[in-house]
Amino acid sequence: MGPAILDDNHESAHLEFTPGTPGGVETVDLPILHGTMGPAVLDIRKLYTETDYFTYDPGYTATASCESKITFIDGEKGILLHRGYPIDELAEKSTFLKVAYLLMEGDLPTSEEYITFEKNITHHTMVHEQLRNFYSGFRRDAHPMAIMVGVVGALSAFYHDSLDIRDPQQRIIASHRLIAKMPTIAAMAYKYSVGQPFVYPKNELGYAENFLHMMFSTPTGSYTVNPVVAKALDKILILHADHEQNASTSTVRLVGSSGANPFACIAAGIACLWGPAHGGANEAVLNMLKEIGHKDRIPEFLEKAKNKDDPFRLMGFGHRVYKNFDPRARVLWKTSQEILDELGFDNDPLLQLAKELERIALEDPYFVERKLYPNVDFYSGFILKAIGVPTTMFTVLFAVARTVGWIAHWMEMIEDPAQKIGRPRQLYTGHTLRHYEPQTHHGI
Ligand code: ACO
Fold first, then answer.
1. How confident is the model at residue 66 (pLDDT cuts 50, 70, 90)?
2. What percent of the chain has pLDDT over 90?
3. Which of 199, 263, 356, 442 minimizes the number of CB atoms within 10 Å of its CB?
């Protein structure tokens, strides 16, 4: 195959092939599509039919899988915009539910729109009473993410009136149900694991407040939500609400592309998010710090992280897209200082260890050359730990926040007239044709 040459006005690229290649063509014109921001893309949809070639891009490092208007990221410059608004402005000035509306609807809500939206979400916070029985099928020591995958998937067995994805009204009801019920389901997973009674949601509380109430109150005492804690949690939710076509969002889109119901799609997103390379990283950060144990052992762990024969990686560092400081990490770094001050956690030994690790890694040539900066998960874990959320619930909270992004993308995909079932191809490197010969088993 020869070079790809851009035409003068950058509307197409000519790809040249060596004569005699499969398909017999010598050149093919690939249209160039321009978005409103970010790199243009080569439209390769006709490549296979015209040339007999597929493209090869494991991990989709250079592949746009869809067109989207929701989130824009410039990883080199450390920019993240939701519907055009910078993430730091949203985190400072907005609330999670307003950001949810923005992601789903495209614009920030007017006061009237917000009142209706908040009412709809509040109206759906309880789960079907029978769903409570579902929990007792799990072992008490089950990881709450395992429970989340099961219970969220099971919602499709309880809410039959919002499963028809071709009906826009049913899609909206399913979306509101998911956003509203996720904190309830998450808090129930926690309560189940500690053997405490489930706590019903309270409609007069805000989204983050309600979650804290369902997590930490018990029937035996009174519990008042600390507003500083609720605000910090709301900020964490905003910062995790969406992140373009990441692994779990792409999973939701792929599952949804077959026409699967929204509850099944979100359960699949949760399963993907659970992995330590994705949402499981904030839990992995704290586990790693516990394993390091003391600052004297930091060099030993940094060496392990650099050693290509060792699978260990420094959790909370690096990002597929950001090759600069993750803008969400910047906001969370500030929030973590505020909340740790408020709660008197400044001298926490794990936090001290994390600060030292951050300092040493940011000066280490291996991390500097590869542009490996602390990511959002490096800081979110400390805030959650300080507010009393157990480590196993960290990824669960990420899932609560990201549900909004998953839904926005799922909705966008369903409404896209060009939507097709997702079906990647492959570079086959297995056996060529061979014929079945019955095996002779000696001694049997
Ligand atoms: N520790 C040590 N080395 C690393 C790390 C790390 N955390 N991250 C990347 N590298 C190295 C790679 O080994 C590679 O080195 P090489 O060029 O010598 O081969 C180089 O940096 C480039 O990294 P890639 O593996 O190409 O980066 P990729 O985009 O595939 O991975 C990922 C991104 C998965 C996030 C990775 O950085 C990682 O595993 N980080 C730790 C887990 C983590 O914190 N995940 C959270 C992501 S953020 C989120 O989900 C919200």
1. very high
2. 76
3. 442
**Residues 389-408: pLDDT tens digits?**
999 999 999 999 999 999 99
DSSP 382: H
Separation of alpha carbons 96 and 108, rounded Å:
12
Strand 12-16 with 4-6, pairing: antiparallel
Type and span of the H or E element at 276: none
pLDDT at 149 over 80: yes
Kindly report the protein residue whose alpha carbon is nearest to atom 24 of ligand 1: 320
CA–CA distance, 75 with 209 (Å, rounded to integer) = 33
How many of the other CB atoms lie within 10 Å of CB of 35? 13
Query: How far is the centre of ligand 1, averaged over its atoms, from the C-alpha of 277 (Å)?
Result: 8
Q: 133 by DSSP, 3-state: which? A: helix
Nearest CA to ligand 1 atom 45: 277
What is the Cβ-side half-sphere exposure of residue 48, based on CA atoms within 13 angstroms? 7
Distance CA 187, CA 154 (A): 17
pLDDT of residue 341: 83
The model's pTM: 0.90
Residues 335, 240 contacting (CB under 8 angstroms): no
- Please give the share of the chain, as a percent, with pLDDT higher than 70: 95
By annotation, the residues acting in catalysis are 319, 377
Q: What is the dihedral of CA 61, 66, 71, 77, to 10 degrees?
A: 30
